[in-house]
Amino acid sequence: MPLDPLPVDATEPSTACCPPLAGAPMTAEDAARTARSLKALADPARLRLLSIIAAHAGGEACVCDLTEPLGLSQPTVSHHLKVLTEAGFVTREKRGVWAYYTLAPAAVQELTAHLGTHLLHSRNA
Amino acid sequence: MPLDPLPVDATEPSTACCPPLAGAPMTAEDAARTARSLKALADPARLRLLSIIAAHAGGEACVCDLTEPLGLSQPTVSHHLKVLTEAGFVTREKRGVWAYYTLAPAAVQELTAHLGTHLLHSRNA
């Protein structure tokens, strides 16, 4: 007895013959959002700050630990940390007189996975 | 008979007790180079161009295929493609009257792997 055909939802694009493209083009909105995240990272001081926080125990560092290794003033370091916080790469918590910054690894992972999905050509596509 | 002790090279840091930090801080030179790569990507038009090239058959597209989807002039598209070429994300080949751009996936892979190495905290570190 032949099996019933699978129900077809006419509102969805057919994927019967071909797998979806692994490297689907980015939409304008997606590209604008991704470019904003990349711009937040695309600064040598911010990359070094984030990598120092990542290397600290627990992925957390006090702002007081971050000025000396970079040789920058505390206001400059605070400005860069504000950009990283607003972009979601770190979270900030005030304890006593110091602010502590914790890595938000999901933000880095999502960005790198997103670049991999859209900017790498699938040989099977 | 006791085994001879392993030779100790005093010029190498000891890793006997601890694995190396997965999230080692970036050096100033590394951060400067990585920021340059990220800046080349951190533009909505360039992200869309690269994702369109990645989605094309063979990861290659003619410049003539790239102006219409973005709604930008050919000089503007050519400028963005030049930035991507100089950053190593695509390679350019002239055939007849048109230039063809091919994705250089290793550049994207190296960048995302590098961010993962330095910006993600290892829970075991």
Automatic annotation (TrEMBL), chains A, B:
The keyword Lipoprotein does not apply. Residues 26-123 form the HTH arsR-type domain. Pfam families: HTH_5. SMART domains: HTH_ARSR (SM00418). Keywords: DNA-binding, Transcription, Transcription regulation. InterPro entries: ArsR-like_HTH, ArsR_HTH, HTH_ArsR_DNA-bd_dom, HTH_MetalResp_TranReg, WH-like_DNA-bd_sf, WH_DNA-bd_sf. This is Metalloregulator ArsR/SmtB family transcription factor.
